[in-house]
Write a structure and sequence with these properties.
binds NADP nicotinamide-adenine-dinucleotide phosphate; 217 residues; 9 helices; Rossmann fold
Length: 217
Amino acid sequence: MRIGVLGTGMVGQALATRLVETGHDVMMGSRTAGNEKAVSWAAQQPERAATGTFADAARHGEVVVNATGGGVSLEVLRSVDTSDLDGKVLVDVANPMVWAGGPLPTLSPDKGDSLAEQIQREFPGARVVKALNTVNAGVMVDPAARVPAPHDLFIAGDDADAKAVVRDLLAGFGWDPALVHDVGGIASAQGLEAYLLFWIVLRTHIGNHDFNIHVAR
Ligand SMILES: NC(=O)c1ccc[n+]([C@@H]2O[C@H](COP(=O)([O-])OP(=O)(O)OC[C@H]3O[C@@H](n4cnc5c(N)ncnc54)[C@H](OP(=O)(O)O)[C@@H]3O)[C@@H](O)[C@H]2O)c1
């Protein structure tokens, strides 16, 4: 499948690398064509790796991944031709956090809204699925090795077919399908984004990034 990964940070790099490893044809997008991190990433891939602007990557992808800073994601998506999002699965990995000097960030938006819902409202043709924002980049793409115990992932979105596509991608990464919970429509992203605050508390408590949670009942 052709996938456009918007983002050159550690998440964009981790996802793009794993997507190439699992047989996909990936373009990494950034603000500028020729971005140093993107070009360096592509040079390390054996095949099926290209770079371009955010707009180029969105055009390339049958699936588009938003791995940009949560505070700039809407701006990034506005730089893309809307027709290059219409009908496509848009996997939103971003966490919309604002650091203002305290021990924890705040979320923006916070009360009664989420970044994923903002994206879905502004780009109604896209089929937005919130996924993977509840774990560190390394855990996203190598769940069994990073956390060698049962642990869970959550997806939210209004389009059942889009969530099925994301489930397949996650299975390719090594996520146990039985432990990928569909927590409902895109409004459930409010909970997934709010979890970030507890994730940060847990990271401080545990002392590293290689952890996740498991739902017991
Ligand atoms: N780090 C993790 O393990 C983790 C885990 C879960 C979720 N997340 C979320 O995943 C997303 C990506 O995280 P990250 O640490 O990989 O990268 P990041 O540093 O948050 O974002 C990097 C991307 O944002 C773009 N960007 C930065 N400022 C911009 C601006 N003013 N206008 C337009 N684009 C701008 C950069 O563009 P250029 O390429 O042009 O520089 C780059 O592609 C974030 O929302 C983060 O909260 C991260």
